[in-house]
Amino acid sequence: MRVPLLDLKLQYASIRDEVRPVVDEVMENQYFILGPNVTGLEEEVARYSQSKYGIGVTSGTDALLIALMALDIGPDDAVITTPYTFFATGGVVHRLGALPLFLDIDEASYNIDPAQVEQYISCHCVTRDGALFDPRLGRKVRVLMPVHLYGQCADMDALSAIAEKYGLAIIEDAAQAIGSEWKGRRAGSMGTIGCFSFFPSKNLGGFGDGGMVTVSDDALAEKLRILRVHGSKPKYYHKMVGGNFRLDELQAAVLRVKLRHLDAWTEGRQKNAALYRSLFKGAGLDGKIGLPKELSNVRHIYNQFVIRAPRRDELMAHLKAQGIGTEIYYPLPLHLQECFSDLGYKTGDLPISEKAAAETVAVPIFPELTEEQIRYVVESIAAFYS
Predict the structure, then answer these.
(1) Can you count the helices (H) and strands (E) in the chain?
(2) pTM (global) more than 0.90
(3) What's the CATH superfamily of 262-385?
């Protein structure tokens, strides 16, 4: 049996008759950039994410970048974030000349550990001229950037309390988490700015790159809109330097169709996750492998279903031979990446992130999976460990 990690053809087959007319309409209108579908998607995603405004951008990476730019983050600043994430989280900070401050994660959720954030600030920072400052680095610490990894929100109660206590802005990296909730509040609505990715493999994925920024502050929303068109307002007049971060009309048209199905797809993923848990337990594997921990009072959307597996690489080879797709998210934490070697981190500095990178593997979770396929995955894993 073949069980791919993701099969977008199955998803497309179910919505083909809805997608083709809107694509044809864009072609007929010849309105390709920041058109009515972009405006419609912005309103719909903002409403879905419990935010006042949505600003469509070119990608999830550019959503993070423009969010930092809107907060005037630059070479004098540092941003607290996690090393256990996709590269863009740290890369955008570095691109602006700011310093990424990598702190370790919570072992259960894989999200940044609020206790580590509080400990770092209390041990290394002082308040200077009304701002948090790290004397060792000679930089202001101005932003806290949690990542809602794998579709589950970080502890936003604790992180918001820290941000309020020390005057930090929060940028939510919600690239994997559209529709996820922390105690009834949607990802992208709990910080200063929320950032989403519409990369094709995401729960809400386009037919190419795309992203969205969510915000509820009027002035900040206007600044984000100006920054995405090279800082121009009115056209050809620039009070600031922005970039070309415009979402195209074709992607927005497709995403508006898909957004109507997102909750049903999320329910499918949640159902598959529950079946996995039941089958792993029934196979006696719940003590041999680590299953994802779903925190209480959250809505987990399962962008990935990630297990902890002894002899992980051998298991992946076995599953590949059985026709089962897997993936490692992420094999090397950001603090150990070669491009960040000048930051001075070494192996052992952030042990929980490093352990997760060495032990975790994602198995198929997409909503179109059949029960037979999920049983086959579990049986193949059980056979390996037997």
Answers:
(1) 12, 14
(2) yes
(3) Aspartate Aminotransferase, domain 1 (3.90.1150.10)
